[in-house]
């Protein structure tokens, strides 16, 4: 069993953590409990707030005319399925 211990400060009643690649896929167990005051445990510095990502103003008013969820080619053209 491998454990990842982090001290994270809640922001708006949420905790956000970055997982290492080997833990980023599959099922993870999360246990949340208050951290004890200990000299070796220092809370991480506050992350600088990033501005929200917004689409380019050049895209304003554009419309999508395609069905983005349908396949690009018919299933009969997929030789991998044969």
Architecture overview:
This protein has 82 residues and is mostly loops. Helix content is 0%, strand content 0%. The protein has no helix or strand. The radius of gyration is 22 Å and the shape is flat.
Q: What is the strand tally?
A: 0
Overall 3D form: flat
Helix content: under 10%
- C-alpha end-to-end distance: 41 Å
The structural class is: little secondary structure
**Percent of sequence in beta strands:** under 5%
Main sheet summary: none
Mean pLDDT: 79
Rg is 22 Å
The number of helical segments is 0
Task: List low-confidence stretches.
Answer: none
In short:
This protein is low in regular secondary structure and 82 residues long. The model has no long low-confidence stretch (mean pLDDT 79).
Task: Note the topology.
Layout: no helix or strand
Features:
single chain, 82 residues, little secondary structure, 0% helix, flat
């Amino acid at each position: 069993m491998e454990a990842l211990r982090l001290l994270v400060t809640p922001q708006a009643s949420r905790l956000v953590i970055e997982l290492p690649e080997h833990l980023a896929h599959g099922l993870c167990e999360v246990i949340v409990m208050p951290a004890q005051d200990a000299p070796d445990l220092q809370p991480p510095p506050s992350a600088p707030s990033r501005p929200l990502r917004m689409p380019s103003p050049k895209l304003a008013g554009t419309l999508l005319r395609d069905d983005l969820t349908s396949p690009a080619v018919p299933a009969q053209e997929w030789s991998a399925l044969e």
